[in-house]
Design goal:
The structure is a homodimer of 241-residue chains.
Chain A: H1 10-22, H2 25-37, E1 40-41, H3 42-49, H4 53-65, E2 69-74, E3 77-82, H5 87-104, H6 112-115, E4 117-119, E5 122-124, H7 125-137, E6 141-143, E7 149-151, H8 156-160, E8 177-180, E9 187-190, H9 191-203, E10 207-209, E11 216-218, H10 220-229
The structure holds a DNA duplex (30 and 30 nucleotides).
DNA sequence: GTCATCATTCACGCTTCACTGAAGGGTGGT
DNA sequence: ACCACCCTTCAGTGAAGCGTGAATGATGAC
């Protein structure tokens, strides 16, 4: 019988093609952005990523040929978006593995800001990323196909964090946004809900802000309680300041 | 501020390196085999995959440098194994995405055997793959680090399929094995448990064997009941023969 | 109509990577 | 001691991928 390595096998060929698309920093980051934060134009992407327009365009053309992104022309703008919300799962699996891998053999000491810091008025860093993934995993938050987020059916995870969904006011500002964390390459929670969650953690004395900066410190109380509220959150030693 | 694409960022660099390792048919298949079926020697791998020994060795050296596999020399054999069981999650996420992608735009018509066929005395194909992932997801089956499988705490999923865990006799043969499906690139269930599950499905009239072959046909009864037992199982039209 | 902006395409040079075939160490069997 | 086997390493060749810079199309503002 023929060997296992037969690139004519549709599934194998498809997996390889997918991995090849992800094996470039520009394409990977663009996909992460499109998946976590919704549609962007080419110029937005090339501006945010800091690469030239032709370079960005070439990579987007590849992604489009691979069926990972779609493009819609409106006037002289080309709006790109992730073709399927499922790609977020793949990206998250990769980022989580890489993250765990780094924890095993860290290449640089973990900075306090890696654990938690504020992004405007919500929590970012490892804390913010874990809040996001926990809320999504427990069904309290539901990512929509266009990058937006809506409340899910079971909001018990929110209640445990000390937030009452009924009090949220999304009239003047988006309820929740997926803000891609630049360090961890995973989305963290922004918007009204992000601010409320951080407020509840501060009020509960689980974390406290550092004076005159964006740093967040996990208190002893937080070290004791957060792992139960946020499964998967592993606090490096010394993170309580 | 610097752009998002900075390969000095440890997480980004790690994700890219990981994707690059997976972007080759030999490396990907080797990882799938090591992850699903446990340790293999170099010659076993090069024999099964059908590639030359130097080629296989070079790819394994790369995987070792990337920290994805470990090697242990015993005599003149080099036994390779997956460095972490977590890599299975990444591979499964990739294969699942590719699989869904192919369902959207199939490159060849689905053959009946793609849905279900026997592998010795257990179910393979899409049916077998779905059985495996369902049992693992529901905690009835627990993959161990070395590729072996053990019963989990909650075996209700097995009971629903018509198998009583107390009747399983694992003295003469392994209880359960993860047998990598060559078509779907995901593990399916083998061993005593695999045989029992297939027996229960046949006894319940959900599937029936085709005369004189390894094909399995999903009956009308199966079409009605299997999707509830195995979430995520999508039967292509015409699969009931 | 003219200009500015945005997106895409082309040609070119550069780098990186993977495969082959042969040779080199090590180990176990006889 | 010899041979058979397994694994690894080496040099050489060929192909593929990537980035730059300039040119081309298309659209909207004035």
């Amino acid at each position: 019988m023929a060997g296992w390595v037969d690139t004519r096998e549709p599934v194998l060929a498809s997996v390889i093609a997918l991995a090849r698309e992800l094996a470039d920093p520009v394409r990977l980051t663009a996909l992460q952005l499109l998946s976590a934060e919704g549609p962007h134009t080419l110029s937005q992407l090339s501006d945010v990523l800091g690469v030239s327009a032709p370079r960005m365009g070439n990579h987007l053309a590849r992604l489009r040929a691979a069926g990972l992104v779609t493009v819609q022309r409106t006037g002289r703008h080309a709006v790109y978006r992730a073709a399927s919300a499922d790609i977020g799962d793949v990206l998250a699996a990769l980022a989580r593995y890489a993250h765990a891998d780094l924890r095993i053999r860290p290449r640089r000491p973990a900075a306090p800001g890696d654990v938690a810091h504020t992004c405007y008025d919500h929590a970012a860093g490892l804390l913010g990323v874990t809040i996001f993934s926990t809320l999504v995993a427990r069904g309290a938050l539901r990512p929509l196909d266009d990058g937006e987020l809506a409340l899910g059916a079971d909001t018990s995870a929110l209640a445990e964090l000390g937030v009452d969904p009924a009090t949220l006011d999304a009239r003047r500002r988006k309820l929740a946004t997926a803000c891609l964390d630049r360090v961890h390459r995973l989305p963290h929670l922004g918007g009204v809900l992000g601010a409320e969650v951080l407020g509840a953690l501060l009020a509960g004395g689980l974390v406290e802000g550092q004076e005159g900066g964006r740093g967040l410190t996990v208190t002893a109380r937080g070290v004791a309680r957060l792992p139960a509220l946020l499964p998967g959150l592993t606090l490096p030693p010394g993170s309580t300041g």
